[in-house]
Specification:
Blueprint lengths: L4 E3 L7 E3 L4 E2 L9 E4 H9 L1 H8 L8 H19 L7 H20 L3 H19 L6 E13 L2 E13 L2 E8 L6 H16 L5 E6 L5 E4 L3 H23 L22 H10 L2
Parallel strand pairs: 1-3, 4-6, 7-8
Antiparallel strand pairs: 1-2, 5-6, 6-7, 8-9
Helix pairs in contact: 1-2, 1-6, 2-7, 3-4, 3-5, 6-7
Length: 276
């Protein structure tokens, strides 16, 4: 890829890469802010909900999110240590819950019979997962973190990194519909480029539940566009820290999980339509 990339934080440090002509937008100083792929996609859906998350305010946990998290833990275990025997599956799930998910289990107040139902659901997803092409996996749950200014850090966790004949392939597993996968993948592409000095060859979202797949070939232009949207997010949320009412709220399916849904006119109207 022709051209060069310059990352210019406020203190003047310049880092150059050989993958794009891309100067990350300058960011005003402010409160420390960590921008994850989840916060980014939430912002694009509803800036108001993203502001709540940036302030550490979240909606209630859901059974669906718990099931999805457990499925991801099982997928990572498979790729790290090998297939899980059917006779050992329930115990493996309980071990994963004990390692990282006990707080969510407590908040949901799942009865033993309900937990067995969740494990059965995850088992069905695991059967589908094993039918996917999994050769060439380099790493799982790969953490990325890049400081783009002294008080703004971009973060992401890639479900799986594969070696592909054309380069690196990043894969994000979905346990439901693909939804807005394109925005999440664009964020991962940009972040990978910032940390590793080159863009991945392919980024892919794959729904284990439906078999849907979406892939994208990252470009310098898409990385530049994503960087500009991240800069807009930072400016908007920092403004919201001062005056939250100035941050727009947008109604939609995500209102089900918004901590402000009962006091937001857009959220109330959206939930009324969704429940009709």
């Amino acid at each position: 890829m022709a051209g060069r990339y310059s990352q210019i934080p406020s203190e003047g440090r310049v880092t150059t890469y050989d993958w794009a002509v891309f100067e990350f937008p300058s960011l005003p100083r402010g409160e420390p802010l960590s921008v994850s792929a989840s916060l980014y996609t939430t912002y694009l859906r509803c800036p108001g909900q993203a502001l709540a998350h940036a302030q550490g305010v979240y909606g209630p946990d859901s059974r669906a999110s718990f099931s999805g998290m457990l499925a991801h833990r099982v997928f990572a275990r498979h790729l790290s240590t090998g297939p899980i025997a059917e006779a050992d599956f329930a115990q493996a799930c309980r071990e994963e819950i004990g390692l990282a998910m006990n707080p969510k289990l407590g908040s949901l107040h799942l009865r033993p019979s309900e937990l067995r139902g969740v494990i059965d659901e995850v088992g069905a997803l695991y059967e589908r997962f094993q039918a996917a092409p999994l050769e060439g996996c380099r790493s799982v749950e790969t953490e990325l973190a890049v400081e783009v200014s002294p008080d703004v850090t971009l973060r992401g966790r890639i479900d799986a990194v594969f070696d592909d004949p054309t380069g690196v392939r990043l894969v994000d597993w979905k346990t439901g519909a693909l939804g807005g996968a394109q925005d999440q993948l664009s964020f991962y592409s940009m972040l990978w480029g910032l940390e590793h000095g080159e863009l991945p060859a392919i980024v892919e979202a794959a729904s284990v539940a439906s078999g849907e797949r979406y892939e994208e070939l990252p470009t310098a232009a898409s990385a530049v566009a994503t960087g500009r949207r991240v800069a807009e997010l930072v400016a908007t949320l920092r403004g919201g820290f001062i005056d939250g009412a100035a941050v727009p709220r947008v109604g939609g399916p995500g209102c089900r999980y918004c901590p402000w849904r009962d006091e937001c006119e857009e959220g109330v109207a959206a939930l009324r339509v969704l429940s009709a």
